[in-house]
Amino acid sequence: MITKALITAAGRGTRFLPAVKGYAKELVPILNKPQIQYLIEEAIAAGITEICIVHRPSDTSLKNYFAPDRELTDFLTKTNKLNAIESLQKIWDSTKLVFIPQDPTLPYGNASPILAAKSFIGIDPFVYMFGDDLIVEKEIGRYLNKMITTYEQYSPAVVISVKDVGPEEINRYGSAKYIDDSKYPHRISGMFEKLEADKAPSFFGQGGRFVINSEKIIPILNKKQTGLNNELWLADANNILAQKDIVLTVATDSESDWMTTGDPLRWLKANIAMARLDPKFDF
Fold it and tell me: How far apart are CA 240 and CA 25, in angstroms?
């Protein structure tokens, strides 16, 4: 049973400057909640009971946001507005939150938070979530549950989230190359980064959710072999595993859509998509 999740929040958020100069970009709201709160709620809905957030060493904004505030609670109680933080109370009641600063001596890259959180992960399989990626779905946790079920059924090294982004967008993402394997559905031999449509092996682009066997991924990452732009890429480690082990994908669908919020335009689109699911908003 998978009970641990790791969320990345150690980037600088340069595409959102100057707005995020004083706080983590993962606190930029989608509607009325910080985007990272949606990830935590998604993880809880999928059965996760321990969540680690890896953040910049100098940043305290994430920990401050998720910490209970007695003064605020007293004020909201007196003014009969306690429902304003009901969603936070559910998080406090449902999961253990751990905050780990990313060691500045680690290479830059989206795989380094795994090395920073080795003490939290231990030898357990875990869910890995990019902090600026959102799953838009009415049934929260539905898609992540599907990924976890795939992992538990087939025991691969990694399960990777993918989405059919079409020929227009595939050059923005890693493209999955599939293997015809009757035993392991949707098995891949690798993800190939940012290829043009005529060279991409498929139009299934890598999303921001993974279910990972820690005992297989960490020895590879411990070597700290950097790739493009001298960064430590999770995709590189996954590709190494795909050559000698089983790496599977689970695609999003009409009921659970993956959206990135890493730049202002796509963040705005994610706001609109989430608003369309909320009956309070009239579209």
Answer: 31
